[in-house]
C-alpha cells in the first residue's frame, strides 16, 4: 500500500471523527499560539526600553514554562478521550486484516496532519495576533506605542521543536497502546463500562480531613513568614480533598439517592442516578479536575486584577513619603550635613518638602515564647517559624517630633502597637527586660510603611536612646551581632511633578557621596514604573494562563458530554423501544447534566470563599491592603466565570442531546 493511501485514510478518519477531533485540533492551535506569543514577547528586547521591562520579560518567560508543562499534560489527557473513541474502529481494522504496523502508519499520518495544522495555525495565528497583544501590553504599562511587526524566528523554532516532540511522544504512546492490545480488546475498548463503584468510606473521610485542614490553614494562617509556604500546603490539601470527595463522596451521595425509593424510582432520576453511578469513578476525577481548574482561574484573575487596579494603594503603602533616605547610627554632625544637602538641592530645584519626619529606629526579630514575652529565635525549636515576630523600636523624642505628639515616658515604660492597634497587655518583655506598657491615649502608629507587615509586628516607643542602646547590646550578646543596628531614616514629600522629584532625588544621592557613609535611598516616582510594569506583567500573564485554563475546562466538559452521550446512546435507544418518550429522555438528560456539571462550579465557589482570607493576606505582603477592592474583583471574576460556565453548559448539552436522540 502506498503512502498516499495511508494519507487519504488518515484524512478520512479525522473528517469522520470531526466531532471529537475538531475541538482537539482547536485546542492544540490555541496552546501553540499562546505559547508562541508569550515566548516571542519574552524574547523581545524592545521591552528592555520600558522601565521594569526586564522583570516583565522574566515573568513572561516563567509563564512560557507554566504553559508548556500544563499544555503538555493536558494534551495527553485529552488524547486519552480520542483514543478511547477510536479503539472500536481500530479493532475493526485489525479484524478485517489490517496489520498493526499498517494501523501504526495511519496513526502516524493522522498525528502528522494534526501537528502540521496545529503548528501552522498556532504560529501563524501567533504572528497575526502578536502585534495586537504587544500593543495591549504597552497600553497596560502606559508605555509609548511602537509600530511595526516583530517576528521571532527563535520563538517559532522553539515552539516547533517543543510541540513537535510532544506530538511524537503522544504518537508513541498511542501506538504502544494499540500494539499491546488484542483485536478483541480493541473492539470492546470503546464500549467498556464502569462497574458500580463501592462506597469507599476511608477515601471519603480522608477527603473531609484534607479539605478541612486546607480550609483551616487558609483561615487561621496569619504569620507573614508562614503565609507563602502555608498557602502552597493548603492548596495541595484542598486538591487532594477535592479529588477524594468527588470520587468517594459523590458515590456515597448517589447511593443515598438510590436508597430513597420515592426519589430514585422517578423516570428522570432513575436513568440519571443509575447512569452516573456506574461511571462515577471516571466522571468524578474529571469533575474534580474541572473544579480545580475553575478555582485556579478565578484565584489567578481576581488576584492579578486586584494588584493592577489597586496600584495606587500599593504605592501608598510601600512608600510612606516621596523620597526616603536611610543610613546607620550617624552622629549629629553628619545628620545635620544630610539635612543641609537636601535643603540645598530642593532650593536649587525650586521644590518644597512637606510632611517630613526623621527618626532613629532599631529593627530585629524575636520569638514570642508566650504572649508578650519575646526571646531570641531558636531555629532548632519545634514550631519556631510561627512564633517569629518583628520588633521595631524608636525613642519618644523622635516620635513626638515626627508625629507632633507629647508622650512623656519614664525609664522602663513603653508604648506598644501591634499592627495598627494598641497593644492590650500590661507589660512587654524583650530579651529578659520587662517594660510596663503605657496606654497610647491619642497617639497613633507612626509612619513606617509596610516594610515589616502588620501581623506579628511589635512597634515599640521607648523612653530614650539609652533604652534603645540597651536593647541593641542585649541583641548583640544573645545573637552574636545585631541584625541591623540602629538606623537613621529621613523621609519627606515634594510638591513637584514625578519627573522633578526623580531629578531632585538623583542629585541628592550624588551629593550624599561626599559624606563617606553608606546611604540608601528610594524615590516613589522612580519606583512607580517598576511596580506598574510588574503588576501589568502579572495581570497580562494571568489573562493568558486564565485563557488556557478556561480552554482546558471547556474541552474537559465538552469531551465528557460527548463521551457520556455515546455511552448513553444505546441505553436511551433501549428506553425508547420500551416506551420512554422523548420528553422524558430530555428531562432525564437535564437532570443528569445539572447534577454533574454544576457541582464543580459550586465547589469552586466554596474553595474561593475559604481561600479569600489567605489570599488577601498574601496580597497584603505585596502592599495590596484594599480588601474591599479584592472582594469586588473576586465577586466580579466569579460572576463572569459562572456566566461563561453556563454558556458552555448550554452548548455542550445540545451536543449531548444530538448524540443520544
From TrEMBL:
Q: Which domain of life is it from?
A: Bacteria
Keywords, in A-Z order: Cell membrane, Membrane, Transmembrane, Transmembrane helix, Transport
| Keyword Acetylation found | no
Question: Membrane-spanning residues where?
Answer: 21-43, 55-77, 106-129, 149-180, 201-219, 225-254, 284-308, 528-559, 593-617, 629-651
Q: Might you name a Gene Ontology BP term for this protein?
A: transmembrane transport
Q: Which GO terms describe its cellular component?
A: plasma membrane
Q: Which PANTHER family match?
A: ABC TRANSPORTER PERMEASE, ABC TRANSPORTER PERMEASE-RELATED-RELATED
InterPro entries for the chain: ABC-4_Integral_Memb_Prot, ABC3_permease_C, ABC_permease_BceB-typ
- Cell compartment(s), UniProt: Cell membrane
Family the entry assigns:
Belongs to the ABC-4 integral membrane protein family.
The gene it comes from is bceB
User: How is this protein positioned relative to the membrane?
Assistant: Multi-pass membrane protein
According to UniProt, the name of this protein is Bacitracin export permease protein BceB
Q: Which organism is it from?
A: Clostridium symbiosum
Ranked from the top, the taxonomy reads: Bacteria, Bacillati, Bacillota, Clostridia, Lachnospirales
Primary location class: membrane
Where's the ABC3 transporter permease C-terminal domain? Answer: 65-172
Amino acid at each position: 500500500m502506498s503512502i498516499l493511501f495511508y494519507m487519504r485514510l488518515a484524512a478520512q478518519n479525522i473528517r469522520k471523527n470531526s466531532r471529537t477531533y475538531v475541538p482537539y485540533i482547536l485546542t492544540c492551535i490555541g496552546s501553540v499560539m499562546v505559547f508562541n506569543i508569550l515566548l516571542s514577547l519574552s524574547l523581545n528586547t524592545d521591552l528592555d526600553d520600558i522601565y521594569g521591562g526586564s522583570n516583565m520579560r522574566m515573568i513572561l518567560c516563567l509563564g512560557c514554562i507554566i504553559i508548556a508543562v500544563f499544555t503538555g499534560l493536558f494534551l495527553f489527557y485529552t488524547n486519552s478521550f480520542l483514543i478511547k473513541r477510536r479503539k472500536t474502529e481500530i479493532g475493526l481494522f485489525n479484524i478485517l486484516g489490517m496489520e498493526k504496523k499498517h494501523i501504526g502508519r495511519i496513526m502516524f499520518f493522522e498525528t502528522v496532519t494534526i501537528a502540521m495544522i496545529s503548528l501552522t495555525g498556532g504560529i501563524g495565528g501567533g504572528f497575526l495576533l502578536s502585534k495586537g497583544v504587544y500593543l495591549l501590553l504597552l497600553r497596560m504599562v502606559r508605555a509609548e506605542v511602537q509600530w511595526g511587526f516583530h517576528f521571532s524566528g527563535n520563538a517559532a523554532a522553539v515552539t516547533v521543536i517543543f510541540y513537535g516532540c510532544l506530538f511524537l511522544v503522544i504518537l508513541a504512546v498511542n501506538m504502544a497502546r494499540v500494539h499491546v492490545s488484542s483485536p478483541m480488546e480493541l473492539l470492546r475498548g470503546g464500549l467498556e463500562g464502569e462497574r458500580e463503584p463501592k462506597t469507599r468510606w476511608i477515601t471519603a473521610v480522608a477527603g473531609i480531613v484534607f479539605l478541612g485542614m486546607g480550609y483551616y490553614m487558609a483561615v487561621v494562617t496569619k504569620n507573614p513568614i508562614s503565609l507563602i509556604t502555608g498557602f502552597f500546603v493548603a492548596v495541595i490539601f484542598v486538591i487532594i480533598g477535592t479529588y477524594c470527595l468527588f470520587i468517594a463522596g459523590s458515590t456515597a451521595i448517589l447511593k443515598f439517592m438510590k436508597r430513597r425509593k420515592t426519589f430514585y424510582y422517578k423516570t428522570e432520576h432513575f436513568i440519571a442516578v443509575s447512569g452516573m453511578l456506574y461511571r462515577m469513578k471516571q466522571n468524578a476525577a474529571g469533575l474534580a479536575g474541572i473544579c480545580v481548574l475553575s478555582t485556579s482561574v478565578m484565584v489567578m484573575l481576581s488576584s492579578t486584577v486586584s494588584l493592577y487596579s489597586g496600584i495606587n494603594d500599593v504605592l501608598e503603602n510601600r512608600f510612606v513619603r516621596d523620597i526616603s533616605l536611610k543610613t546607620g547610627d550617624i552622629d549629629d554632625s553628619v545628620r545635620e550635613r544630610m539635612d543641609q544637602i537636601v535643603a540645598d538641592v530642593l532650593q536649587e530645584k525650586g521644590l518644597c518638602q512637606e510632611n517630613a519626619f526623621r527618626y532613629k529606629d532599631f529593627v530585629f526579630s524575636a520569638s514570642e515564647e508566650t504572649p508578650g514575652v519575646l526571646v531570641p529565635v531558636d531555629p532548632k525549636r519545634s514550631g519556631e517559624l510561627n512564633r517569629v515576630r518583628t520588633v521595631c523600636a524608636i525613642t519618644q523624642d523622635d516620635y513626638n517630633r515626627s508625629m507632633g505628639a507629647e508622650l512623656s515616658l519614664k525609664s522602663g515604660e513603653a508604648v506598644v502597637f501591634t499592627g495598627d492597634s494598641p497593644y492590650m497587655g500590661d507589660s512587654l518583655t524583650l530579651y529578659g527586660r520587662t517594660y510596663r506598657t503605657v496606654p497610647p491615649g491619642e497617639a497613633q502608629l507612626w509612619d513606617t510603611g509596610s516594610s515589616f507587615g502588620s501581623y506579628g509586628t511589635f512597634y515599640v516607643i521607648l523612653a530614650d536612646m539609652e533604652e534603645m542602646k540597651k536593647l541593641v547590646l542585649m541583641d548583640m550578646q544573645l545573637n552574636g551581632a545585631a541584625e541591623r543596628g540602629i538606623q537613621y531614616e529621613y523621609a519627606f514629600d515634594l510638591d513637584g511633578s514625578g519627573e522633578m522629584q526623580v531629578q531632585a532625588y538623583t542629585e541628592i544621592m550624588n551629593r550624599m557621596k561626599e559624606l563617606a557613609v553608606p546611604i540608601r535611598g528610594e524615590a516613589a516616582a522612580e519606583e512607580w514604573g517598576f511596580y506598574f510594569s510588574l503588576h501589568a506583567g502579572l495581570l497580562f500573564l494571568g489573562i493568558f494562563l486564565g485563557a488556557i485554563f478556561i480552554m482546558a475546562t471547556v474541552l474537559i466538559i465538552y469531551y465528557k458530554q460527548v463521551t457520556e452521550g455515546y455511552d448513553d446512546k444505546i441505553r436511551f435507544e433501549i428506553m425508547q423501544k420500551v416506551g420512554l418518550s422523548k420528553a422524558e429522555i430530555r428531562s432525564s438528560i437535564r437532570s443528569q447534566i445539572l447534577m454533574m456539571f454544576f457541582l464543580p462550579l459550586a465547589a469552586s465557589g466554596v474553595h474561593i470563599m475559604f481561600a479569600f482570607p489567605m489570599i488577601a493576606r498574601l496580597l497584603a505582603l505585596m502592599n495590596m491592603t484594599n480588601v474591599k477592592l479584592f472582594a469586588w474583583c473576586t465577586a466580579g471574576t466569579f460572576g463572569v466565570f459562572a456566566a461563561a460556565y453556563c454558556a458552555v453548559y448550554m452548548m455542550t448539552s445540545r451536543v449531548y442531546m444530538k448524540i443520544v436522540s
